[in-house]
Amino acid sequence: MDKLYLKLYDQIRQDIIDKKYVHNQKLPSKRSLAATSGVSIKTVENAYYQLMLEGYIYSKEKSGFYVDDVNNYMTPSITAPAVKKEEAPAHNYILDLKSNKVNRELFPDSIWRKVMREVLSSYDDLLFETVPYNGLYKLRVSISNYLKASKSMDVQPDRIIIGAGVEYLYMKLFRLLGNDRHYAVAEPSSANIKALMKASGINYSALSLSDDLTDSLTRENCDIINISPSDNYPTGDILNISDRIKLLEWANEKKERYIIEDDFDSEYRHKGMPIKSMQSIDVGGKVIYINTFSKIIGPSFRIGYMILPPKLMKRYETSVNFYSCSVPSFEQLALAHFIDEGYLDKNINRIRRNNRMIREYFLKACRPLIESGDITISDSEVGSYFLMTFKRGTHEALSKHFEEHGILISSVLDSYEKSAPEYERTFVVNYSGIDEEGIDVFVKAVHEFIQTYP
Question: Is 0.90 surpassed by the pTM of this model?
Answer without folding.
Answer: no
